[in-house]
């Protein structure tokens, strides 16, 4: 029996579904917002329902899960990628 595939963290952020809490998103007006909450919380759930709310404190952007975003990795994502590279288990 084969173990199910585990999603690995990546430094590449292409779509709203790829975002993690702590990432920085550049908005249309070139301002940046730090992601503080995602609904649905996981990439898989966002892809399944097709939409994602991206929250920064009290501001929210509702995006299609596949919408392209300009974003930079936050510290949480960097830590997950380092853990995975070291062979440690990570939970997304």
Summarize the SSE layout with pairings.
Layout: E1 24-26, E2 32-34, E3 37-39, H1 43-49, E4 51-56, E5 59-64, E6 70-72, H2 75-85
Antiparallel strand pairs: 1-2, 1-6, 3-4, 4-5
Task: List key phrases describing it.
alpha+beta; 3-stranded antiparallel β-sheet; 92 residues; single chain
Structure description:
The structure is a single chain. The chain is of the alpha+beta class and 92 residues long. Helices cover 20% and strands 26% of the residues. It has 2 helices and 6 strands, in the order E-E-E-H-E-E-E-H. The strands form 2 sheets. The protein has a 3-stranded antiparallel β-sheet, with no helix packed on it. The mean pLDDT is 90.
Note the gap between the termini.
Answer: 24 Å
Helix content: 10-25%
Strand elements, count: 6
Unreliable segments of 5+ consecutive residues: none
Q: Residue-averaged pLDDT, rounded? A: 90
Overall structural class, as computed from helix and strand content, comes to alpha+beta
Name the shape in a single word.
Answer: globular
Number of helices: 2
What is the gyration radius calculated from CA atoms?
13 Å
Order of H and E elements: EEEHEEEH
